[in-house]
Design brief:
By secondary structure, this protein is of the alpha+beta class. Helix content is about 20%, strand content about 25%. The chain is built from four helices and 17 strands.
């Protein structure tokens, strides 16, 4: 995040992601084709001085069957987390803490999958949101807005090499590929090594591998959302200047 540049060349007080023309050659190559997006739900937030309600966030043009497939994927990853929790007490405590908070959250804002195996016919996961990154080599950072007592549940898709997830504090790098599930405390500093072709060679602009990473998490404060999007929108519309984001 860098200060925005006005048309006259001066720096503005607002910060944002630098535009492509302001990037170094290395960063330009790394970020030119990178993209990310959210799947699922997001809590209230302020943008440009305006408060947005708890709401569903979707990919433009996604079809109902694609949402169903994505939820099957989320469901499979949650089962993997539950399996790990049954074999590790620390992971189990994290899952239980997140599940308890999920139970306080309106079902309208929880990732869920219709299942005939439950009394209600719906399987509610312990997640509200999925962040998807395509060909994105992240710099060292800490995730913000995730449930602090939970875990980030990650999986990757695609044929590639490199992009190991590094945790400097532990002097460890994790290499995870298709079929793997990575559980990590995303509030620790972490970042990626360079993205490489499947044969280990350095990609070129016209020949890049595709790597899609999904990060599943519970977004903080979602348990403070109202029961439905309509109630959320009405509450935000009635909000007066200076009122807290959440009552």
């Amino acid at each position: 995040m860098v200060p925005r540049i006005r048309k006259n060349g001066s720096k503005a007080k607002i910060s944002g992601v630098p535009t492509l023309r302001n990037l170094s050659q290395e960063d330009y190559r790394r970020l030119k084709n990178a993209s990310d997006g959210l799947f699922g739900y997001t809590g209230r937030g302020i943008r440009g001085g305006q408060v947005y309600p708890c709401r569903q966030t979707v990919y433009k043009g996604a079809l109902p069957r694609e949402f169903r497939q994505m939820m099957e994927f989320v469901y499979a990853l949650e089962l993997g987390w539950r399996f790990a929790a049954s074999h590790n007490s620390q992971i189990s405590r994290r899952l239980l803490a997140q599940a308890k908070t999920m139970c306080k959250t309106p079902s309208s804002f929880v990732l869920r999958l219709p299942k005939k195996t439950t009394k209600s016919g719906v399987w509610h996961t312990a997640f509200t949101t999925v962040t998807c990154n395509r060909n994105w080599r992240t710099a060292a950072h800490k995730d913000k807005g995730d449930f602090k007592n939970g875990l980030g549940v990650m999986a990757s898709l695609g044929q590639f090499d490199g992009c190991d997830l590094v945790f400097p504090r532990y002097k460890a790098a994790v290499r995870y590929r298709e079929g793997d599930i990575l559980l990590a405390d995303v509030h620790e500093v972490h970042g990626n090594t360079p993205l490489l072709n499947p044969d280990g060679s350095i990609p070129t602009l016209d020949n890049e591998p595709e790597r899609l990473v999904t990060v599943l998490y519970y977004q903080e404060n979602m348990h403070r959302c109202l029961g439905s999007l309509e109630e959320e929108q009405e509450s935000v519309n009635k909000r007066k200047r200076g009122d807290p984001v959440y009552a």
